[in-house]
């Protein structure tokens, strides 16, 4: 956008797209942009990030549309996935808990999801996912989602902290060139071996221009 565009140009465009499409997530994004967004929000909302999360929501709608308890999203960044999950009419999700290690994420996630925060259906927590005691959580999670497996140092070590039988949705990728990626896998089969799920409801690969994303839905 040129420097002579008005400061609220992005807000006006997004409000226009929300009006055109009736998409409430775009409306929520417009408000976030209007009252201050982090500089790297564009990465969280780029077409590859949204594409992989749409893929996730579509798969969940097929195999696990009504999780039996709140959905915990780990490594949730700015809460984009929570917004998509709570907006999708095919899913029945009582609440989303959005967890990230980076304290800058929670305030942004809660502003993006402000409608759901007001209804008591969304909260953002700053925590290390390695330290969450899911066995003691009340109410019990209906599903734990981790789309940031590639960022963990020890994926099997994290999985070992979870109760057996817990419903899980995991994503990883083969994008080894990204310096923050510590646990990339070369194939879907390698991801299945790394995850060691006791039951698998979905296993798939989504090729993109520079890398392939992998997803598993099942039980620990
Ligand atoms: C780049 S983002 C998300 C990438 C992911 N592929 C996605 O689209 O959801 C990775 C996030 O994981 C978070 N993260 C990394 N290690 C974590 C941990 N141990 N506990 C909680 N969050 C963590 C980071 O702070 C970051 O916000």
TrEMBL record:
It comes from the Bacteria. Keywords: Methyltransferase, Transferase. This is SAM-dependent methyltransferase. The lineage of its organism: Bacteria, Pseudomonadati, Pseudomonadota, Alphaproteobacteria, Hyphomicrobiales. One of its GO terms (biological process) is methylation. One of its GO terms (molecular function) is methyltransferase activity.
């Amino acid at each position: 956008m040129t420097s002579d565009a008005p400061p609220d140009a992005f807000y006006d465009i997004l409000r226009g797209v929300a009006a055109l499409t009736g998409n409430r997530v775009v409306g929520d994004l417009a408000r976030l942009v209007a009252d201050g967004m982090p500089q790297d929000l564009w990465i969280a909302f780029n077409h590859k990030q949204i594409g992989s999360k749409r893929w996730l929501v579509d798969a969940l709608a097929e195999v696990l549309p009504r999780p039996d308890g709140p959905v915990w999203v780990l490594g949730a960044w700015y809460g984009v996935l929570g917004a998509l999950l709570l907006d999708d009419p095919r899913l029945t999700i009582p609440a989303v808990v959005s967890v990230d290690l980076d304290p800058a994420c929670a305030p942004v996630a809660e502003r993006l999801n402000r409608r759901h925060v007001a209804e008591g259906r969304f909260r953002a927590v700053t925590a290390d996912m390695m330290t969450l005691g899911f066995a003691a959580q009340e109410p019990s999670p209906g599903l734990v989602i981790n789309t940031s497996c590639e960022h963990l140092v020890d994926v099997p070590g994290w999985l070992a902290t979870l109760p057996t039988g817990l419903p899980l949705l995991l994503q990883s990728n083969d994008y080894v060139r990204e310096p923050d990626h510590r646990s990339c896998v070369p194939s879907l089969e390698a991801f299945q071996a790394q995850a060691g799920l006791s039951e698998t409801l979905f296993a798939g690969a989504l090729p993109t221009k520079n890398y392939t994303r992998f997803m598993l839905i099942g039980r620990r």
